[in-house]
Amino acid sequence: GDKAFAQFLTDEIQEEKKIQKHKSLPKVSGGWELEVHGTEAKLVRKIAGEKITVTFNINNSIPPSDEEDAQEQQKPDEQEPELTSTPNFVVEVIKDDTKQTLVLDCHFPEDEIGHEGEEESDIFTIREVSFQPTGEADWKDTNYTLNTDSLDWALYDHLMDFLADRGVDNTFADELIELSTALEHQEYIKFLEDLKSFVKCQ
User: Where is the segment annotated Disordered (predicted)?
Assistant: First the structure.
């Protein structure tokens, strides 16, 4: 059984490498620096008096596909539909002269329909906003967290503009999806390779 499993994994790794779009991770434009630790990625950008960091984790970032739809539409020889990684991401804005960090928890809605009747052109939404003490690893649950579900739209729009002014806009979000998808695929191939070594190990 293990031999067959290892052979299957060898074929699978070859296939995945064939369809791998990026041999190296795509860059995010706008002067963002990338740090990757396993499945977590962090983008950092410094602008006048501020440091902006965007953190995301590729685990569980691929939305579930509707199995039945996929099977009906798929012709026998077609490639499987491309998987896209749309992780939640956290934006932290740190001002040099304050001890507080503004934290915005953002995500990609599963259905990009937005609110009916509005020109909802943003591909990501802000879910929660809070202040956290700068430099502390553990965020406090006792800090007030603003949930945007019940938020005044004008305030929400200002928050989105605030992010856009710091380079977190639709273009950035598109590039983040591209980066995350490439990173997820790279980690998946690495996982298959590790699994193969593990299965072959006697």
Answer: 58-87
Q: Which two tokens stand for residue 120?
A: 């909802």
In terms of CATH architecture, what is 28-60+83-180? Answer: Roll (3.10)
pTM of the entire structure? 0.84
pLDDT tens, 25-78?
999 999 999 999 999 999 999 998 899 999 999 999 988 766 545 444 444 445
Q: How far apart are CA 70 and CA 87, in angstroms?
A: 22
Three-class DSSP category at 26: coil
Helix (H) or strand (E) holding 45: strand 40-47
Closest Cα to residue 83, out of 120, 52, 58, 56?
Answer: 58
